[in-house]
Amino acid sequence: MNEQINVLVVDDIAPNIRLVAGLLGPEGYDVSFANSGKKALEQVLANDFDLILLDIMMPDMDGIEVCKAIKAHPEKRDIPIIFLTGKTDEVSIMTAFETGGVDYLQKPVNPVELIARVKTHLELKKARDTISQTNCELTQALEVKNQFLGLAAHDLRNPLSAVQGYLRLLEMDPATSLSAEAQQFMVSIQHMTQNMLEMINTFLEKAALELGQVELQLQSIDLIAALQPLFQLYKEQAHHKEQRFQLHLAAPEIWLEADPYRVNQILDNLLSNAVKYTPTEGQIDVFFNLRGEQLEIRVQDSGPGFAEADKARLFGYFQRLTAKPTAQESSNGVGLALTKQMVELHQGQIRAESTPGNGATLIVTLPLHPQRPSLVKA
Asked: Is the pTM of this model over 0.70?
């Protein structure tokens, strides 16, 4: 065997140890032994073992106690333990598994069964170790990637904000005289820089979420009052696209324990999608319903809806859907993914309902404030 595999055999009866060691040695395993529970623990703490064969019945400290002590140690808890036992009752076997054992062999051991079980659990351990190492490397790579994106986005945001500031100064300066064509160029530059800033901010949000750096600033808020400026903004945007925008409120006040900024983000993304994909003269309806201890928000548009292929990737990052914005608005494919994460940070859920050609409805449920019941209309 290319790799040295260390196996510890624990039994208070010497012939049993010699039997097991005689079976495993020819298989290429490096076999150590201990004839008591205390000596076994000392060896486990001092060495790296790939597998432990552990007798249950031992004086002073039995195998169950040894197993519990090993599983309580952070650096040793993942060593697979196969119990060796003369007991066949279900209670003893169940106790062995509940303590952390991965398998058991009845005494006297069957040589073929012993070797097969040992090989199986060593292969499983190797697979788990590989997965764990891969996950660790992927996590580190993700953190580096997010840190890089965060730094790059931060460095790009400042000059773009400066460009916007200079454009505003030019607009306000009475000495600036621009042709109609140049003025149109300025409007286009403002529009493009704003889109770029929004994209950069989205990347920063995504990086922060993946690094676990987003912490909610929870407050007791009346959601309807908090969202009034956002409602007014999207009413105006819908009016500009000749769309009909209507709110349906189950109560004049709806109280949540939430982060006002993040909840605003959630609704901003949902309303933006509705306006973006609803055609001219289309209908947008926003329902705030009370369902027991939950608030249900339904944002319903009359756009093209989602194709069947879209549903599986609707809340994924950088997903391009079949439907296209009706007025060439920009779409970076991350808004709904961020929305889903923000909703889940609030212990809520988000889902979509849609039939192609008949619009789409995005549904968010959030827990109501536990101590401030919402006022239901009579």
From this structure: no
